[in-house]
Amino acid sequence: xxxxxxxxxxxxxxxxxxxxxxxxxxxxxxxxxxxxxxxxxxxxxxxxxxxxxxxxxxxxxxxxxxxxxxxxxxxxxxxxxxxxxxxxxxxxxxxxxxxxxxxxxxxxxxxxxxxxxxxxxxxxxxxxxxxxxxxxxxxxxxxxxxxxxxxxxxxxxxxxxxxxxxxxxxxxxxxxxxxxxxxxxxxxxxxxxxxxxxxxxxxxxxxxxxxxxxxxxxxxxxxxxxxxxxxxxxxxxxxxxxxxxxxxxxxxxxxxxxxxxxxxxxxxxxxxxxxxxxxxxxxxxxxxxxxxxxxxxxxxxxxxxxxxxxxxxxxxxxxxxxxxxxxxxxxxxxxxxxxxxxxxxxxxxxxxxxxxxxxxxxxxxxxxxxxxxxxxxxxxxxxxxxxxxxxxxxxxxxxxxxxxxxxxxxxxxxxxxxxxxxxxxxxxxxxxxxxxxxxxxxxxxxxxxxxxxxxxxxxx
Length: 460
Known about the structure:
This protein has helices spanning 14-21, 24-28, 32-48, 54-72, 85-97, 99-103, 110-146, 166-191, 210-216, 226-231, 235-261, 289-312, 327-350, 355-361, 368-377, 382-390, 401-405, 419-449; strands at residues 151-156, 159-165, 193-194, 221-222, 269-270, 352-353. By secondary structure, it is mostly helical. Helix 3 packs across helix 9. The protein is built from 18 helices and 6 strands.
């Protein structure tokens, strides 16, 4: 029988236990490695403060390294009896090391323990999300580059407005996604703070060196105020989800455009049949179900954000178990955005513009504004030119969209999309992700091996 970390000699009603734990173990399973790494850092801090013998630290480190190995091969499974990842790991350490295992929790609460777990988990989990978004950017960049001057009607109010191009359309989503990653950067940087030493919200009466532990674990800084360290739970993750909402806002709009522009009524783009599912009743139907799902997931992520903020709003100072309910929407948001970005990348890469249909859609009224500007270039005030053209819309002559596009030469238009800037940004971002992956892998290896600079030496 597993002994709960809070055990005081009485049994908890199993119905209460099931309700409190619910499906939280599913998400705790994803925190096993982070919990082990955080525990190594905490134990190093205890040894540094003289609260744990160096030989005991290394014994704990070696067992925690074993746990990481088992977790990564799927052999360290949590069960309802374990209650949570923290109980499971401390129980393992106590079973393997006896009294040494009982010392690991000195100066720590499950409250700051779970916060550091989530932050260690987060710094790795955001990297594949960033890569997937960059893959979508790469696909959009390629489409915009190949079709920078391919004419396409531009719309406002769902009506034909002015001449545009496939390059402008794809480039808009490309630049927006790259800006979304700037928001994600800021949110991830906010999360890069060590909460260890805050304990249950109010610190402990022990000479803990919080900055040392923060450095050992590779955080950018120590979150200073011990109460704020607890209040940051859910808040920091919600900030990341808010950035992810921006990504999904773009991908959802992109999906809607693709769904609209691939209809038989528009026919601006085509996708091969491998992207289409069918109908159970209509033999002819071929549906872009993935794009419909992508469109819907924008609303789901928005609901996750609202769910997290709704849980947090109005909570009193200090730790509250409500925070536990932010774990699920946070992790599922990361998963959903990674999967959605990958699907967007795949779809855009296979999207084929139908130039003939788009040229047909470039009807004369699309060039009304261009006609007005032709008058402006001849010295007619714009408002007068506007009214003159408005009175002769039905008499506008035929124009070649390709020729008109050649007049779009200022920054951001078809003739000057500056896609090389986006290409450079993608390249730099990919390099930064790779560098961060290497850095985190090195921190992890050093923690497990006991070779992290500043770590207690000897006694192993």
